[in-house]
Amino acid sequence: MPSRPPLYVGYLRLPERHRRFVVGVAVVFVCLLAAAGGGVALSQRDPGDAVWDTGMERTWTGVVRMEPYPMLVGDDGSASLIVGMGKFAVRDRVAPFDGMACEVRGFALAREHRRMIELSMDDDAIRALPGAPVPAVETAPVGAGENVVVIGEIVDGKCYLGAMKPGDGKAHKACAVLCISGGLPPLVAADVPGAGRLYPLLLVDGAAVLPGRVLEVVGEPVRIEGRLLVRHGFPVLETSVGGISRVGRSVRQSPPAERDPGRDEGRAGTGG
Question: How much is the pLDDT for 255?
Fold first, then answer.
């Protein structure tokens, strides 16, 4: 009798020839899938060594300074920005302690030489230390204090220092805009000529609350022309709206009628 192909019946054992074929295809598919996953992983950029230590509440001591942004200046002269839980600043909570030696409790965020404290929600998370010495306010230029031009990215400090990975780039733009609008500190991720990688706090027209025209370029490559200073041990880049432009084209100039003084005042009262 002429040979016939084996008949496959679902509830019986798979014929040996079919079994070898299925196993071979499955092995090849798994290998290709693993190779594709590895290739995608290797192609991603390094998000950096930012750290957000949410597992351990810590305590710091130092002097609280409100300007240009709430921060705690330690005995060694280093400064840590102070922010709240979520996407909010803590200016109202910290303001009564301006210029006082304090103990602060919260969670640490850090990236390279930049540090931040996420203030605990407890009412006594910040308390004054009566009798502790308070050093004089220090403001000094970086280098000769002349104007600098940097090319980099405006990022929200909390996410960039560890709350998100990555905390920069267009994929993070919407989150960064919300964070900065909520009062979190805008930093500049860029190499500063003659000073290296500083991640300075960005002040636009004297404030860390960014106007709408600058928020539009957060998370994008920008060119910033301004003056670089150190205030309370923290680098600050002072500029104006006109000193910031997209790389290759200017920041869009909005008509004066777009500005709402009442809205700006409200933001300034709750922001950082």
Answer: 39
Looking at the structure of the chain, the number of domains it has is: 2
Q: What average pLDDT does this structure show over 29-46?
A: 82
Stretch 75-83: mean pLDDT: 89
Give the HSE-up count for residue 80: Cα atoms under 13 Å, Cβ half-sphere: 26
The phi and psi torsions of 213 (rounded to 5 degrees) equal: -65, -30
Question: Structure tokens of 126?
Answer: 């910040």
Per-residue pLDDT of 143-153, as tens digits, reads 445 688 999 99
Residue 129, classed as helix, strand or coil, is: coil
Cβ atoms of 227 and 191 within 8 Å: the answer is: no
Q: How far is CA 262 from CA 169, 200, 207, 214, in A?
A: 31, 29, 16, 18
What type of residue is 187? L
Beta bridge pairs of residue 202 = 237
Q: Are residues 147 and 266 in the same domain?
A: yes
Task: Tell me the percentage of the chain whose pLDDT exceeds 70.
Answer: 80
Q: How many CB atoms lie within 10 A of CB 221?
A: 15
Q: Is residue 174 part of a domain?
A: yes
User: Looking at residue 230, what is its pLDDT?
Assistant: 86
Of the three residues 94, 128, 162, the one that is the final residue of a domain is 128
Nearest to 272 by CA among 48, 67, 57: 67
Closest to 52 measured CA to CA, from 156, 125, 160: 160
From 181, 185, 178, select the one nearest 160 (Cα to Cα): 185
